[in-house]
Amino acid sequence: PKRDLIIDRYLKHQRTLTNEAFRLMDETPSNPAVQDDERLFEENLHLNQKRYEAVLSELELCGAKRILDLGCGEGRFTNTLVEHAQFTNILGLDVSHHELRRANKRFERLSPTQRQRIELIQGSLLYRDMRLDGYEAAVLIEVIEHLDPPRLSTFERVVFEYAHPNTVIITTPNAEYNVRWPSLPAGNFRHFDHRFEWTRNQFQTWAQTVVEKFGYTVTFKPIGPNDPEV
Ligand code: SAH
After folding, report:
1. What pLDDT is recorded for position 31?
2. DSSP string for residues in 117-152
3. 145 lines ligand 1 (CB under 6 A)
4. What are 27-75's pLDDT values in tens digits?
5. CA-CA distances (angstroms) from residue 214 to 133, 151, 161, 169?
6. Which of 45, 63, 122, 223 has the greatest number of beta carbons closer than 10 A?
7. SS3 171
8. Which long-range contacts does 97-101 make (Cβ < 8 Å, 24+ apart)?
9. HEC assignment per residue over 150-166
10. Once rounded to an integer, what is the mean pLDDT over residues 198-222?
11. Global confidence as pTM
12. Do residues 51 and 141 make contact, with C-beta atoms less than 8 angstroms apart?
């Protein structure tokens, strides 16, 4: 009875592949939930794209040229930044050597002049690092929820007190929205390495405290489809 679901998951929800599989069986999926799951999964993919677009437009607005991509992972956002000439120096930092290797591989496809604008370093957001000095803006896309809550105060000092860029852009999942993911069991996080997922109120309370402590101001913006309840 779970055949369609199994096929869909096995093929990682890729519509072109599942369609092909069903075509080979000369059938269409019998279970509408599968199509629904797929739609939501795609919505999730677009969410990442929307996140990048939202951060990019904030960076363009603030006019920063020298950018820190903190917790850059495999360099997908760094790679987006380098396409925009406004950003003359981009420093990507991540704690994971594995992710940095993947980022380096990705950047092999860039032109030499583009590659020159990127520097990649291994480091942790939980230690003061002078290599982060002198940048105008920092972005942390889906990173803070990977830090253990008792270490957040250290992270705050590293970014807001020591590196101290004019602008800091942070994205983090909205835990309230998780109920809209039928495939996500209640109470689960979106990713196995998440240490927390905050409600909008928790995030705003934290951010408000941080800006007061370090002399910044803050604005909050949503990303993705606006759900009136969550
Ligand atoms: N910003 C990227 C990746 C987000 S995943 C993107 O949007 O695609 C979170 C990343 O944070 C991972 O690559 C992980 O290695 C990194 N990370 C987790 N703890 C960290 C720490 N203490 N210091 C620096 N990076 C960290």
Report:
1. 54
2. TEEEEE--TTS--GGGTT-SEEEEES-GGGS-GGGH
3. no
4. 555 555 554 555 555 566 588 999 999 999 999 999 999 999 999 999 9
5. 16, 17, 6, 15
6. 223
7. strand
8. 97/122, 99/72, 99/73, 99/74, 99/75, 100/75
9. HHHHHHHHHHHHHHCCC
10. 98
11. 0.83
12. yes
In sequence order, what are the residues at sequence separation of 6 or more whose Cβ sits closer than 8 angstroms to the Cβ of residue 215?
Answer: none
CA 37–ligand 1 middle distance (angstroms): 27
Structure letter (DSSP) for residue 185:
-
Q: Which two tokens stand for residue 22?
A: 């069903």
Supply 179's token pair.
Answer: 């109920």
Give the confidence band of 16 by pLDDT, cuts at 50, 70, 90. confident
* Residue 76 Cβ < 6 Å to ligand 1: yes
Q: Where are the alpha helices (DSSP H) in 13-139?
A: 15-24, 32-62, 76-81, 97-107, 112-116
User: Is the minimum distance from the CB of 94 to ligand 1 under 6 angstroms?
Assistant: yes
Instruction: Report the pLDDT value the prediction gives residue 127, as an integer from 0 to 100.
Output: 98
Residue 94 · residue 122 · CB < 8 Å: yes
74 alpha carbon – ligand 1 mean position (Å):
9
